[in-house]
## 1
Amino acid sequence: MAGIDFASEELLAFDLHPAHRLYLARRYGLQGVDWIDTPICILLSTPLVRYYQDSTDNLDFELYMIIATAKESIATVRKRFGTHPPFPSNFDNGPFCNQHTTCKKVWFEKWFFGILRRIHHPSEPFPLALIPKTLTDMDHRGMNAECKQFVLNWLQDDCTHVQKEEELIQETIATIRNLFK
Ligand SMILES: [Zn+2]
Protein backbone atom coordinates (compact mmCIF):
# COMPACT_ATOMS: atom_id res chain seq x y z
CA MET A 1 0.00 0.00 0.00
CA ALA A 2 2.98 2.30 -0.57
CA GLY A 3 0.95 4.32 -3.08
CA ILE A 4 -1.79 4.99 -0.54
CA ASP A 5 0.79 5.90 2.09
CA PHE A 6 2.41 8.36 -0.26
CA ALA A 7 -0.94 9.82 -1.32
CA SER A 8 -2.05 10.16 2.29
CA GLU A 9 1.15 12.04 3.14
CA GLU A 10 0.51 14.37 0.23
CA LEU A 11 -3.13 14.87 1.21
CA LEU A 12 -2.22 15.88 4.74
CA ALA A 13 -0.58 18.94 3.28
CA PHE A 14 -4.06 20.14 2.32
CA ASP A 15 -6.27 21.65 4.92
CA LEU A 16 -8.92 18.94 4.76
CA HIS A 17 -12.00 19.27 6.93
CA PRO A 18 -11.66 16.89 9.92
CA ALA A 19 -14.87 15.08 8.96
CA HIS A 20 -13.48 14.54 5.46
CA ARG A 21 -10.23 13.20 6.91
CA LEU A 22 -12.20 10.66 8.97
CA TYR A 23 -14.15 9.67 5.89
CA LEU A 24 -10.93 9.03 3.95
CA ALA A 25 -9.36 7.21 6.93
CA ARG A 26 -12.28 4.80 7.06
CA ARG A 27 -12.52 4.34 3.34
CA TYR A 28 -8.81 3.72 2.74
CA GLY A 29 -7.86 2.19 6.08
CA LEU A 30 -5.53 5.04 7.06
CA GLN A 31 -4.41 4.47 10.64
CA GLY A 32 -2.24 7.53 11.30
CA VAL A 33 -2.86 9.87 14.22
CA ASP A 34 -3.26 12.72 11.70
CA TRP A 35 -6.11 10.82 10.05
CA ILE A 36 -8.05 9.63 13.09
CA ASP A 37 -7.01 11.08 16.47
CA THR A 38 -6.38 14.67 15.39
CA PRO A 39 -9.62 15.10 13.41
CA ILE A 40 -11.61 13.56 16.29
CA CYS A 41 -10.02 16.03 18.74
CA ILE A 42 -10.85 18.92 16.42
CA LEU A 43 -14.47 17.78 16.00
CA LEU A 44 -14.83 17.31 19.76
CA SER A 45 -13.74 20.87 20.44
CA THR A 46 -15.69 22.49 17.60
CA PRO A 47 -19.29 23.57 18.23
CA LEU A 48 -21.77 21.48 16.19
CA VAL A 49 -23.06 24.60 14.45
CA ARG A 50 -19.63 25.07 12.90
CA TYR A 51 -19.45 21.60 11.34
CA TYR A 52 -20.74 23.01 8.02
CA GLN A 53 -22.15 21.06 5.13
CA ASP A 54 -18.90 19.13 4.67
CA SER A 55 -19.43 17.13 7.85
CA THR A 56 -22.96 16.06 7.03
CA ASP A 57 -21.64 14.62 3.76
CA ASN A 58 -18.77 12.81 5.43
CA LEU A 59 -19.99 11.75 8.86
CA ASP A 60 -22.47 8.92 8.80
CA PHE A 61 -25.12 8.88 11.49
CA GLU A 62 -23.34 6.35 13.73
CA LEU A 63 -20.09 8.37 13.68
CA TYR A 64 -21.97 11.62 14.18
CA MET A 65 -23.78 10.18 17.22
CA ILE A 66 -20.54 8.91 18.80
CA ILE A 67 -19.01 12.37 18.46
CA ALA A 68 -22.15 14.27 19.50
CA THR A 69 -22.59 12.07 22.59
CA ALA A 70 -18.96 12.54 23.61
CA LYS A 71 -19.30 16.30 23.12
CA GLU A 72 -22.31 16.29 25.41
CA SER A 73 -20.41 14.42 28.15
CA ILE A 74 -17.43 16.75 27.79
CA ALA A 75 -19.71 19.80 28.03
CA THR A 76 -21.17 18.43 31.28
CA VAL A 77 -17.69 17.95 32.78
CA ARG A 78 -16.68 21.48 31.77
CA LYS A 79 -19.89 23.04 33.08
CA ARG A 80 -19.35 21.38 36.43
CA PHE A 81 -16.27 23.54 36.98
CA GLY A 82 -18.44 26.64 36.63
CA THR A 83 -20.38 25.79 39.76
CA HIS A 84 -17.82 23.71 41.67
CA PRO A 85 -14.32 25.23 41.78
CA PRO A 86 -12.12 22.27 42.70
CA PHE A 87 -10.74 22.48 46.22
CA PRO A 88 -10.05 19.68 48.71
CA SER A 89 -13.20 19.32 50.80
CA ASN A 90 -11.41 18.00 53.86
CA PHE A 91 -8.33 19.99 54.61
CA ASP A 92 -7.60 18.23 57.91
CA ASN A 93 -4.66 16.38 56.45
CA GLY A 94 -3.20 19.43 54.82
CA PRO A 95 -0.24 21.44 56.10
CA PHE A 96 -0.78 23.45 59.23
CA CYS A 97 -1.85 26.89 58.10
CA ASN A 98 -2.96 29.84 60.20
CA GLN A 99 -3.99 32.00 57.28
CA HIS A 100 -6.05 29.49 55.41
CA THR A 101 -9.00 31.81 54.77
CA THR A 102 -6.61 33.99 52.76
CA CYS A 103 -5.25 30.91 50.93
CA LYS A 104 -8.76 29.97 49.87
CA LYS A 105 -9.57 33.51 48.79
CA VAL A 106 -6.42 33.74 46.62
CA TRP A 107 -7.05 30.28 45.16
CA PHE A 108 -10.67 31.02 44.20
CA GLU A 109 -9.81 34.44 42.75
CA LYS A 110 -7.09 32.93 40.57
CA TRP A 111 -9.40 30.10 39.59
CA PHE A 112 -12.10 32.52 38.55
CA PHE A 113 -9.94 34.94 36.59
CA GLY A 114 -7.22 32.60 35.36
CA ILE A 115 -8.97 29.30 34.66
CA LEU A 116 -12.74 29.55 34.55
CA ARG A 117 -12.72 32.25 31.89
CA ARG A 118 -10.50 30.07 29.72
CA ILE A 119 -12.70 27.01 30.26
CA HIS A 120 -15.74 28.99 29.10
CA HIS A 121 -13.99 30.76 26.25
CA PRO A 122 -16.49 30.57 23.37
CA SER A 123 -14.06 29.94 20.50
CA GLU A 124 -10.83 28.56 21.98
CA PRO A 125 -11.76 25.86 24.46
CA PHE A 126 -9.05 25.36 27.06
CA PRO A 127 -8.21 21.65 27.56
CA LEU A 128 -9.03 20.66 31.14
CA ALA A 129 -5.93 18.45 31.26
CA LEU A 130 -3.86 21.66 31.24
CA ILE A 131 -5.41 22.89 34.51
CA PRO A 132 -2.77 21.49 36.92
CA LYS A 133 0.17 22.82 34.88
CA THR A 134 -1.49 26.23 34.39
CA LEU A 135 -2.20 26.55 38.11
CA THR A 136 1.33 25.44 38.98
CA ASP A 137 2.78 28.21 36.81
CA MET A 138 0.35 30.82 38.13
CA ASP A 139 1.41 33.38 40.72
CA HIS A 140 -0.66 32.69 43.85
CA ARG A 141 0.85 35.53 45.85
CA GLY A 142 -0.68 35.68 49.32
CA MET A 143 -1.33 31.95 49.48
CA ASN A 144 0.81 29.76 51.71
CA ALA A 145 3.20 27.91 49.34
CA GLU A 146 2.70 24.62 51.19
CA CYS A 147 -1.07 24.95 50.84
CA LYS A 148 -0.71 25.59 47.13
CA GLN A 149 1.42 22.46 46.75
CA PHE A 150 -1.09 20.48 48.77
CA VAL A 151 -4.01 21.59 46.59
CA LEU A 152 -2.01 20.93 43.40
CA ASN A 153 -1.18 17.40 44.55
CA TRP A 154 -4.82 16.81 45.38
CA LEU A 155 -5.85 18.16 41.97
CA GLN A 156 -3.43 15.84 40.21
CA ASP A 157 -4.09 12.70 42.25
CA ASP A 158 -7.62 12.86 43.60
CA CYS A 159 -9.70 15.28 41.56
CA THR A 160 -11.09 12.93 38.88
CA HIS A 161 -12.94 15.75 37.08
CA VAL A 162 -9.68 17.28 35.83
CA GLN A 163 -8.74 14.09 33.95
CA LYS A 164 -12.29 13.23 32.86
CA GLU A 165 -12.26 15.25 29.63
CA GLU A 166 -9.04 13.61 28.40
CA GLU A 167 -10.47 10.19 29.30
CA LEU A 168 -13.60 10.89 27.27
CA ILE A 169 -11.49 12.01 24.29
CA GLN A 170 -9.35 8.84 24.46
CA GLU A 171 -12.46 6.64 24.80
CA THR A 172 -13.98 8.27 21.73
CA ILE A 173 -10.80 7.72 19.70
CA ALA A 174 -10.73 4.05 20.78
CA THR A 175 -14.42 3.59 19.87
CA ILE A 176 -13.97 5.12 16.43
CA ARG A 177 -10.72 3.24 15.73
CA ASN A 178 -12.60 0.07 16.59
CA LEU A 179 -15.44 1.02 14.27
CA PHE A 180 -13.00 1.57 11.39
CA LYS A 181 -11.42 -1.90 11.69
ZN1 LIG B 1 -3.42 27.81 53.80
Note: The chain has a mean pLDDT of 86.
## 2
Amino acid sequence: MDFVRAAVILSSLLVAALAQKPVLSIEPRSAAIKQDETISFRCRVVSGSQPVQLEWKRVNNQALGDNVKVGPDGSVLTIAYARPSNQGQYRCIATNAQGKTTINTVLTIKQVPKVWVTPSSPVMARMGGALSLECSASGKPRPSITWLKQEWGSENVLISTTTDTKLVLQMTVMAPEDAGMFVCRAQSSQGSAEEKVELRMAGGAEPRASVSQTDIKAVEGQMVTMHCQATGSPSPVISWSKLRAPLPWQHRAEGGTLTLTSVGRQDSGQYICNATNAAGYSEAYVQLEVDTPPYATSIPDQVVARRGETLRLQCIAHGSHPISYRWSRVGGASLSSGAKVTKDGMLTIAQLKVSDSGNYKCVASNHVGTGETFASVTVRA
Ligand SMILES: *[C@@H]1O[C@H](CO)[C@@H](O)[C@H](O)[C@H]1NC(C)=O
Protein backbone atom coordinates (compact mmCIF):
# COMPACT_ATOMS: atom_id res chain seq x y z
CA MET A 1 0.00 0.00 0.00
CA ASP A 2 2.72 2.42 1.04
CA PHE A 3 4.71 1.42 -1.97
CA VAL A 4 1.77 2.05 -4.28
CA ARG A 5 1.16 5.50 -2.77
CA ALA A 6 4.80 6.35 -3.08
CA ALA A 7 4.78 5.28 -6.73
CA VAL A 8 1.73 7.43 -7.45
CA ILE A 9 3.34 10.48 -5.83
CA LEU A 10 6.58 9.90 -7.68
CA SER A 11 4.90 9.51 -11.04
CA SER A 12 2.80 12.65 -10.52
CA LEU A 13 5.99 14.52 -9.61
CA LEU A 14 7.54 13.27 -12.82
CA VAL A 15 4.47 14.30 -14.79
CA ALA A 16 4.57 17.69 -13.05
CA ALA A 17 8.20 18.12 -14.09
CA LEU A 18 7.49 17.19 -17.68
CA ALA A 19 4.06 18.77 -17.88
CA GLN A 20 5.06 22.32 -17.10
CA LYS A 21 3.53 25.74 -17.70
CA PRO A 22 5.06 27.58 -20.65
CA VAL A 23 8.27 29.55 -20.08
CA LEU A 24 8.57 32.60 -22.35
CA SER A 25 11.12 35.03 -23.68
CA ILE A 26 10.38 38.17 -25.68
CA GLU A 27 12.46 40.23 -28.03
CA PRO A 28 13.03 43.11 -27.92
CA ARG A 29 12.17 43.76 -24.28
CA SER A 30 11.50 47.38 -25.19
CA ALA A 31 11.75 49.51 -28.33
CA ALA A 32 11.64 53.16 -29.32
CA ILE A 33 10.89 53.92 -32.95
CA LYS A 34 9.89 56.92 -35.02
CA GLN A 35 6.42 57.51 -36.24
CA ASP A 36 5.72 55.62 -39.51
CA GLU A 37 8.43 53.06 -38.84
CA THR A 38 7.63 49.36 -38.57
CA ILE A 39 8.63 47.03 -35.76
CA SER A 40 8.17 43.34 -34.86
CA PHE A 41 8.20 41.72 -31.44
CA ARG A 42 8.87 37.97 -31.13
CA CYS A 43 7.50 35.89 -28.28
CA ARG A 44 9.30 32.54 -27.88
CA VAL A 45 8.27 29.48 -25.87
CA VAL A 46 11.50 28.41 -24.20
CA SER A 47 10.02 25.35 -22.54
CA GLY A 48 6.71 23.88 -21.38
CA SER A 49 4.53 21.08 -22.59
CA GLN A 50 2.95 21.39 -25.98
CA PRO A 51 0.55 22.35 -27.34
CA VAL A 52 1.00 25.99 -26.38
CA GLN A 53 -1.41 28.66 -27.57
CA LEU A 54 0.07 32.16 -28.06
CA GLU A 55 -1.90 35.35 -27.97
CA TRP A 56 -1.08 39.11 -27.86
CA LYS A 57 -2.86 41.86 -25.97
CA ARG A 58 -2.27 45.40 -24.91
CA VAL A 59 -1.69 45.77 -21.21
CA ASN A 60 -4.26 48.59 -21.07
CA ASN A 61 -6.83 46.18 -22.61
CA GLN A 62 -7.37 48.40 -25.67
CA ALA A 63 -7.68 46.77 -29.08
CA LEU A 64 -4.40 46.13 -30.89
CA GLY A 65 -5.29 48.52 -33.71
CA ASP A 66 -5.71 47.97 -37.43
CA ASN A 67 -2.00 48.45 -38.22
CA VAL A 68 -1.01 45.68 -35.80
CA LYS A 69 -0.81 42.09 -37.11
CA VAL A 70 -0.01 38.82 -35.40
CA GLY A 71 1.76 36.12 -37.45
CA PRO A 72 0.13 32.73 -38.19
CA ASP A 73 1.75 30.86 -35.27
CA GLY A 74 1.02 33.75 -32.91
CA SER A 75 4.66 34.36 -32.02
CA VAL A 76 5.34 37.55 -34.01
CA LEU A 77 3.54 40.86 -33.47
CA THR A 78 4.18 43.46 -36.17
CA ILE A 79 3.25 47.13 -35.93
CA ALA A 80 3.37 48.75 -39.35
CA TYR A 81 3.68 52.53 -39.88
CA ALA A 82 3.55 53.15 -36.18
CA ARG A 83 1.52 56.06 -34.86
CA PRO A 84 1.38 57.66 -31.45
CA SER A 85 -1.61 55.56 -30.41
CA ASN A 86 0.51 52.39 -30.78
CA GLN A 87 2.66 53.50 -27.89
CA GLY A 88 2.37 51.39 -24.73
CA GLN A 89 2.89 47.94 -23.27
CA TYR A 90 2.17 44.71 -25.13
CA ARG A 91 1.70 41.34 -23.51
CA CYS A 92 2.33 37.90 -24.96
CA ILE A 93 0.13 35.27 -23.32
CA ALA A 94 0.95 31.56 -23.59
CA THR A 95 -1.53 28.92 -22.52
CA ASN A 96 -1.17 25.15 -22.27
CA ALA A 97 -2.93 22.43 -20.29
CA GLN A 98 -0.94 23.36 -17.20
CA GLY A 99 -1.77 27.02 -17.19
CA LYS A 100 -0.98 30.48 -18.44
CA THR A 101 2.22 32.56 -18.57
CA THR A 102 2.61 36.17 -19.68
CA ILE A 103 5.53 38.40 -20.64
CA ASN A 104 5.49 42.14 -21.47
CA THR A 105 7.31 44.48 -23.80
CA VAL A 106 7.01 48.23 -24.18
CA LEU A 107 6.93 50.37 -27.30
CA THR A 108 7.75 54.10 -27.35
CA ILE A 109 6.93 56.18 -30.43
CA LYS A 110 9.38 59.04 -30.84
CA GLN A 111 7.69 62.13 -32.20
CA VAL A 112 9.11 65.08 -34.09
CA PRO A 113 8.35 68.29 -32.24
CA LYS A 114 5.26 70.37 -33.00
CA VAL A 115 4.54 73.91 -31.90
CA TRP A 116 1.46 76.04 -31.49
CA VAL A 117 1.48 79.74 -30.85
CA THR A 118 -1.35 81.91 -29.54
CA PRO A 119 -2.47 84.43 -30.49
CA SER A 120 -1.79 83.78 -34.15
CA SER A 121 0.12 86.11 -36.43
CA PRO A 122 -0.10 89.06 -36.95
CA VAL A 123 -0.48 90.48 -33.45
CA MET A 124 -1.31 94.16 -33.14
CA ALA A 125 0.50 96.14 -30.46
CA ARG A 126 0.07 99.68 -29.26
CA MET A 127 2.68 101.82 -27.59
CA GLY A 128 2.82 101.13 -23.87
CA GLY A 129 0.60 98.07 -24.22
CA ALA A 130 1.43 94.76 -22.56
CA LEU A 131 1.10 91.49 -24.37
CA SER A 132 1.99 87.86 -24.00
CA LEU A 133 2.74 85.31 -26.67
CA GLU A 134 2.24 81.71 -25.69
CA CYS A 135 4.02 78.80 -27.31
CA SER A 136 3.17 75.16 -26.63
CA ALA A 137 5.17 72.23 -27.93
CA SER A 138 4.79 68.47 -28.10
CA GLY A 139 7.19 65.71 -29.05
CA LYS A 140 8.99 62.66 -27.71
CA PRO A 141 11.53 63.10 -26.30
CA ARG A 142 10.25 66.40 -24.94
CA PRO A 143 11.65 69.27 -27.01
CA SER A 144 13.29 72.41 -25.69
CA ILE A 145 11.26 75.54 -26.45
CA THR A 146 12.77 78.89 -27.33
CA TRP A 147 11.38 82.32 -28.17
CA LEU A 148 13.62 84.28 -30.54
CA LYS A 149 13.44 87.59 -32.31
CA GLN A 150 14.72 88.05 -35.85
CA GLU A 151 17.00 91.06 -36.03
CA TRP A 152 19.86 92.05 -38.29
CA GLY A 153 19.41 88.90 -40.33
CA SER A 154 20.13 86.85 -37.22
CA GLU A 155 18.06 85.51 -34.35
CA ASN A 156 18.35 86.57 -30.73
CA VAL A 157 17.20 84.25 -28.01
CA LEU A 158 14.72 85.95 -25.69
CA ILE A 159 13.72 83.10 -23.39
CA SER A 160 14.13 79.34 -23.38
CA THR A 161 13.01 76.25 -21.46
CA THR A 162 13.83 72.56 -21.48
CA THR A 163 11.48 71.54 -18.69
CA ASP A 164 8.07 72.94 -19.62
CA THR A 165 5.72 72.17 -22.48
CA LYS A 166 4.63 75.80 -22.66
CA LEU A 167 6.63 79.01 -22.78
CA VAL A 168 5.07 82.47 -22.43
CA LEU A 169 6.83 85.56 -23.72
CA GLN A 170 5.66 88.67 -21.92
CA MET A 171 6.52 92.21 -22.88
CA THR A 172 5.51 95.82 -22.88
CA VAL A 173 5.80 97.63 -26.20
CA MET A 174 7.93 100.72 -25.60
CA ALA A 175 9.20 101.63 -29.08
CA PRO A 176 8.41 100.88 -32.74
CA GLU A 177 11.57 98.71 -32.76
CA ASP A 178 9.85 96.34 -30.35
CA ALA A 179 7.64 95.24 -33.22
CA GLY A 180 8.99 92.61 -35.57
CA MET A 181 9.14 88.92 -36.22
CA PHE A 182 9.11 86.55 -33.26
CA VAL A 183 9.84 82.87 -33.63
CA CYS A 184 8.99 80.01 -31.31
CA ARG A 185 11.15 76.97 -31.98
CA ALA A 186 10.91 73.49 -30.48
CA GLN A 187 13.93 71.24 -30.83
CA SER A 188 14.70 67.67 -29.85
CA SER A 189 16.88 64.85 -31.12
CA GLN A 190 13.96 64.04 -33.45
CA GLY A 191 14.02 67.37 -35.24
CA SER A 192 12.71 70.86 -34.86
CA ALA A 193 9.58 72.87 -35.58
CA GLU A 194 8.86 76.54 -35.43
CA GLU A 195 6.10 79.06 -35.79
CA LYS A 196 6.45 82.75 -36.43
CA VAL A 197 4.39 85.62 -35.07
CA GLU A 198 4.64 89.08 -36.44
CA LEU A 199 4.11 91.87 -33.97
CA ARG A 200 2.79 94.98 -35.71
CA MET A 201 2.34 98.44 -34.38
CA ALA A 202 -1.32 99.41 -34.59
CA GLY A 203 -1.59 102.07 -37.26
CA GLY A 204 1.69 100.93 -38.80
CA ALA A 205 5.16 102.41 -38.69
CA GLU A 206 7.21 103.53 -41.66
CA PRO A 207 10.31 101.47 -42.38
CA ARG A 208 13.69 102.76 -41.32
CA ALA A 209 16.56 101.04 -43.07
CA SER A 210 20.16 101.14 -41.91
CA VAL A 211 23.31 99.32 -42.94
CA SER A 212 26.00 98.04 -40.61
CA GLN A 213 28.78 99.49 -42.80
CA THR A 214 28.40 102.33 -45.28
CA ASP A 215 31.83 102.01 -46.91
CA ILE A 216 33.41 98.73 -47.82
CA LYS A 217 36.82 98.22 -49.34
CA ALA A 218 37.66 94.85 -50.79
CA VAL A 219 40.36 93.26 -52.91
CA GLU A 220 39.52 91.52 -56.15
CA GLY A 221 38.40 87.91 -55.61
CA GLN A 222 37.23 88.45 -52.04
CA MET A 223 33.77 87.67 -50.71
CA VAL A 224 31.83 90.75 -49.62
CA THR A 225 28.85 90.73 -47.28
CA MET A 226 26.52 93.69 -46.71
CA HIS A 227 24.01 93.78 -43.87
CA CYS A 228 20.86 95.88 -43.83
CA GLN A 229 18.32 96.08 -41.04
CA ALA A 230 14.94 97.70 -41.09
CA THR A 231 12.44 98.57 -38.42
CA GLY A 232 8.82 99.27 -39.21
CA SER A 233 5.43 97.73 -38.91
CA PRO A 234 4.36 95.56 -40.62
CA SER A 235 7.87 94.06 -40.95
CA PRO A 236 9.45 95.62 -44.04
CA VAL A 237 10.58 93.49 -46.95
CA ILE A 238 14.19 94.19 -47.89
CA SER A 239 15.45 94.22 -51.47
CA TRP A 240 18.90 95.06 -52.84
CA SER A 241 19.87 96.84 -56.02
CA LYS A 242 22.90 98.57 -57.47
CA LEU A 243 22.91 102.16 -58.62
CA ARG A 244 22.73 102.39 -62.43
CA ALA A 245 23.71 98.74 -62.87
CA PRO A 246 22.34 95.28 -62.25
CA LEU A 247 23.57 93.38 -59.18
CA PRO A 248 26.68 91.31 -59.87
CA TRP A 249 25.97 87.93 -61.35
CA GLN A 250 27.49 86.06 -58.40
CA HIS A 251 25.31 87.40 -55.62
CA ARG A 252 22.99 86.02 -52.96
CA ALA A 253 20.37 88.11 -51.22
CA GLU A 254 18.86 86.60 -48.10
CA GLY A 255 16.82 88.66 -45.71
CA GLY A 256 18.81 91.80 -45.09
CA THR A 257 22.12 90.27 -46.15
CA LEU A 258 23.66 90.63 -49.59
CA THR A 259 26.64 88.42 -50.35
CA LEU A 260 28.90 88.88 -53.37
CA THR A 261 30.92 85.70 -53.70
CA SER A 262 33.92 86.92 -55.67
CA VAL A 263 34.15 90.62 -56.40
CA GLY A 264 35.83 92.20 -59.40
CA ARG A 265 36.70 95.82 -60.15
CA GLN A 266 33.44 96.28 -62.04
CA ASP A 267 31.47 95.46 -58.87
CA SER A 268 32.61 98.74 -57.31
CA GLY A 269 29.77 101.22 -56.86
CA GLN A 270 26.79 102.06 -54.75
CA TYR A 271 24.47 99.38 -53.43
CA ILE A 272 20.98 100.19 -52.21
CA CYS A 273 19.03 98.42 -49.51
CA ASN A 274 15.32 99.16 -49.92
CA ALA A 275 12.98 98.34 -47.03
CA THR A 276 9.30 98.46 -47.96
CA ASN A 277 6.06 97.96 -46.09
CA ALA A 278 2.49 99.16 -46.37
CA ALA A 279 3.41 102.41 -44.58
CA GLY A 280 6.23 103.38 -46.97
CA TYR A 281 9.81 102.65 -47.84
CA SER A 282 13.32 103.58 -46.76
CA GLU A 283 16.68 103.28 -48.49
CA ALA A 284 20.19 102.82 -47.09
CA TYR A 285 23.40 102.88 -49.09
CA VAL A 286 26.67 100.97 -49.14
CA GLN A 287 29.64 102.20 -51.16
CA LEU A 288 31.83 99.34 -52.36
CA GLU A 289 35.31 99.85 -53.69
CA VAL A 290 37.10 96.84 -55.10
CA ASP A 291 40.85 97.16 -55.35
CA THR A 292 42.81 95.28 -58.01
CA PRO A 293 46.54 94.86 -58.54
CA PRO A 294 47.87 96.43 -61.79
CA TYR A 295 47.71 94.47 -65.05
CA ALA A 296 50.60 95.89 -67.14
CA THR A 297 51.33 95.86 -70.89
CA SER A 298 54.06 97.51 -72.90
CA ILE A 299 53.33 99.33 -76.15
CA PRO A 300 55.10 98.30 -78.27
CA ASP A 301 56.54 95.12 -76.85
CA GLN A 302 59.02 94.49 -79.68
CA VAL A 303 61.21 97.18 -81.17
CA VAL A 304 63.83 97.05 -83.92
CA ALA A 305 65.65 100.39 -84.25
CA ARG A 306 68.86 101.89 -85.64
CA ARG A 307 71.68 103.38 -83.69
CA GLY A 308 71.10 107.07 -82.99
CA GLU A 309 67.30 106.79 -83.09
CA THR A 310 65.03 107.45 -80.08
CA LEU A 311 63.25 104.60 -78.28
CA ARG A 312 59.81 105.07 -76.68
CA LEU A 313 58.14 102.35 -74.62
CA GLN A 314 54.83 103.07 -72.88
CA CYS A 315 53.91 100.91 -69.91
CA ILE A 316 50.13 100.84 -69.45
CA ALA A 317 48.48 99.38 -66.37
CA HIS A 318 44.86 98.81 -65.32
CA GLY A 319 44.12 98.58 -61.62
CA SER A 320 43.47 100.69 -58.56
CA HIS A 321 45.06 104.12 -58.53
CA PRO A 322 47.60 105.46 -57.78
CA ILE A 323 49.93 103.29 -59.87
CA SER A 324 53.68 103.84 -60.06
CA TYR A 325 55.95 102.51 -62.81
CA ARG A 326 59.53 101.32 -62.86
CA TRP A 327 61.51 100.34 -65.96
CA SER A 328 64.66 98.23 -65.76
CA ARG A 329 66.77 95.96 -67.93
CA VAL A 330 66.47 92.23 -67.61
CA GLY A 331 69.78 90.64 -66.63
CA GLY A 332 71.05 93.33 -64.30
CA ALA A 333 72.54 95.89 -66.70
CA SER A 334 71.55 99.44 -65.82
CA LEU A 335 69.52 101.70 -68.12
CA SER A 336 71.66 103.75 -70.43
CA SER A 337 72.56 107.23 -69.22
CA GLY A 338 70.23 108.87 -71.75
CA ALA A 339 67.16 107.00 -70.41
CA LYS A 340 64.20 108.87 -68.87
CA VAL A 341 61.07 107.45 -67.23
CA THR A 342 58.02 109.63 -66.79
CA LYS A 343 55.49 109.29 -63.93
CA ASP A 344 52.95 107.74 -66.31
CA GLY A 345 55.27 104.90 -67.36
CA MET A 346 56.93 106.15 -70.57
CA LEU A 347 60.55 105.05 -71.07
CA THR A 348 62.53 107.23 -73.51
CA ILE A 349 66.10 106.55 -74.62
CA ALA A 350 67.54 109.12 -77.02
CA GLN A 351 70.64 108.38 -79.15
CA LEU A 352 70.28 104.58 -79.06
CA LYS A 353 73.49 102.55 -78.92
CA VAL A 354 73.89 98.91 -79.97
CA SER A 355 74.54 98.11 -76.31
CA ASP A 356 70.96 99.23 -75.50
CA SER A 357 69.72 96.02 -77.14
CA GLY A 358 68.09 93.54 -74.79
CA ASN A 359 64.97 92.87 -72.76
CA TYR A 360 63.29 95.59 -70.72
CA LYS A 361 60.90 95.10 -67.85
CA CYS A 362 58.19 97.42 -66.55
CA VAL A 363 56.88 96.85 -63.00
CA ALA A 364 53.63 98.64 -62.18
CA SER A 365 52.74 98.87 -58.47
CA ASN A 366 49.78 100.00 -56.38
CA HIS A 367 48.82 99.39 -52.76
CA VAL A 368 47.34 95.99 -53.61
CA GLY A 369 50.23 94.48 -55.57
CA THR A 370 52.35 94.60 -58.69
CA GLY A 371 52.14 93.59 -62.32
CA GLU A 372 54.96 93.33 -64.83
CA THR A 373 55.44 93.29 -68.57
CA PHE A 374 58.41 92.93 -70.96
CA ALA A 375 59.62 94.48 -74.19
CA SER A 376 62.47 93.31 -76.39
CA VAL A 377 64.65 95.92 -78.04
CA THR A 378 67.10 95.32 -80.91
CA VAL A 379 69.39 98.16 -81.99
CA ARG A 380 71.16 97.71 -85.33
CA ALA A 381 74.42 99.44 -86.18
C1 LIG B 1 12.30 101.19 -53.14
O1 LIG B 1 10.98 100.70 -53.09
C2 LIG B 1 9.97 101.67 -53.36
C3 LIG B 1 8.63 101.06 -53.14
O2 LIG B 1 8.54 99.79 -53.69
C4 LIG B 1 10.18 102.19 -54.77
O3 LIG B 1 9.22 103.21 -55.06
C5 LIG B 1 11.59 102.76 -54.92
O4 LIG B 1 11.81 103.16 -56.23
C6 LIG B 1 12.60 101.69 -54.53
N1 LIG B 1 13.93 102.27 -54.61
C7 LIG B 1 14.90 101.68 -55.30
C8 LIG B 1 16.23 102.35 -55.28
O5 LIG B 1 14.73 100.66 -55.93
Note: The longest strand covers residues 99-118.
